Sequence to fold (335 residues):
Amino acid sequence: MNYIILDLEWNQSTNGQPRVDGIPFEIIEIGAIKLNDKGVMLSEFSRLIRPTVYLEMHKITSRLIHLQMQELERGDPFPEVMKGFLDWCGDEAYMFCTWGSLDLTELQRNMRHYNMTPLSDGPITFLDIQKLYSLAYEDGKSRRSLESAAEQAQLERDIPFHRAFSDAYYTAKIMTKIIEEKPSVLKSVSFDLFHPPADRQSEIKIRFDTYTKYISREFADKAELFNDSEVVAGKCCFCRRNIKKKIKWFTINGKTYYCVAYCENHGYFKNKIRIRKSEEDRLFVVKTAKAITPQEAAELRELSERARELHHKKNRSRKKQHGIKADDPAQNQKS
Fold:
């Protein structure tokens, strides 16, 4: 399998308001490097794109990538460049690799704007090299800039940063370093969720070294979401069984929810739900489960008590002001 190391540059509205719904960022340059599974560079791709949505360069974009609108006028239409890029990717199996997690989403938004055939009708598995670099050489949580990582890795910096091809070039060099020195981290794949799973059969359930991840299909609202047994189940990372919840689902901000479950064989687990909104304004969840210590479980219990107290206060205030009951659907979720 080959690796397509992809980097994009994009422009945006100069006043902060998207000119066209669904395309807040217009891609103006695509750069890519193709590596084989040994990290050997096979070929390269670099094209400018003539803009049609944002015809004035945002000042920060211009300063960062040193491109002027006059130069982009010599570029080619996005559909033509995109077709050339996909042809260049080839028929042999490949996986996209990017520095960070945004590029594939914005690429698909731009493709949709031009009514192009989607890259996929579901999640796309890819490698986030920024994350892999942290897993390989740091704490797994920090996220360095590409330039900082290149400096730390002592790469020869022979071309300027902040253009699509040059950033793809340095990302490819770091990818090669990871393949040669820390190949075990390559199993830590990421998922672009521009298209969430289409149905229950397509939902993603995957186990990594220290945690599991579940990505659901879409739901109409929170009530439907929290009525789904797979969404609200507490899981053990190791035996993958549904286990009894010691602390039911709670939230501080209405977007991220936590529960603590206990497995008799493997101890306590923190289950975390992040509620995401799809491009069609429907909801889906990314749920993770990881082992925690009894002390961490006790800390989460204290947090849940504060969250529920805050929730009840808000409910009482709303009922007093409007005479309505405003329960969070998570409070009524299945055991």
